[in-house]
Structure formats: structure tokens, C-alpha cells
Amino acid sequence: MAVPKKRTSRSRKGMRRSHDHVAVPNVVYCECGEPTLPHRACSVCGNYKGRQVVSGDNA
Ligand SMILES: [Zn+2]
């Protein structure tokens, strides 16, 4: 098994880990005012692109 010749410095480790984070989901607001994910039908009213695509139970 390959073994690293040199210990990774704190700086190098930090540079590598600068991308290690959970991406924050983007938020768009539906016509009904609820925050939803982009390119998804609204979970509250079932609307997508200005028309109903899922039957809204509580709309
Ligand atoms: Zn909605």
C-alpha cells in the first residue's frame, strides 16, 4: 500500500477541506408564498411553472 512520504500540513489540509461542506439548497418562492426548491412542484399547492401539476390537498 502506498504511504504518504510527508505529513499533510495544516494549511494543505485546510485547502483540501475548503470544499467539504454541505451545499445550501437554493430557495425560490412559489406564487402561494411558500419557499420551495427550484425546478420542483410546490409541496403546498402543487403548482409548477404557473399551473397545477399535483393535486393540492390543502390548497
Ligand atoms: Zn405553492
TrEMBL record:
InterPro entries: Ribosomal_bL32, Ribosomal_bL32_bact, Ribosomal_zn-bd. Pfam families: Ribosomal_L32p. Residues 1-20 are annotated as: Disordered. GO terms for cellular component: large ribosomal subunit. Keywords: Ribonucleoprotein, Ribosomal protein. Gene3D superfamilies: Single helix bin. Residues 1-19 have a biased composition (Basic residues). GO terms for biological process: translation. GO terms for molecular function: structural constituent of ribosome. Belongs to the bacterial ribosomal protein bL32 family. NCBIfam families: rpmF_bact (TIGR01031). PANTHER family: 50S RIBOSOMAL PROTEIN L32, LARGE RIBOSOMAL SUBUNIT PROTEIN BL32. This is Large ribosomal subunit protein bL32. It comes from Pseudodesulfovibrio alkaliphilus.
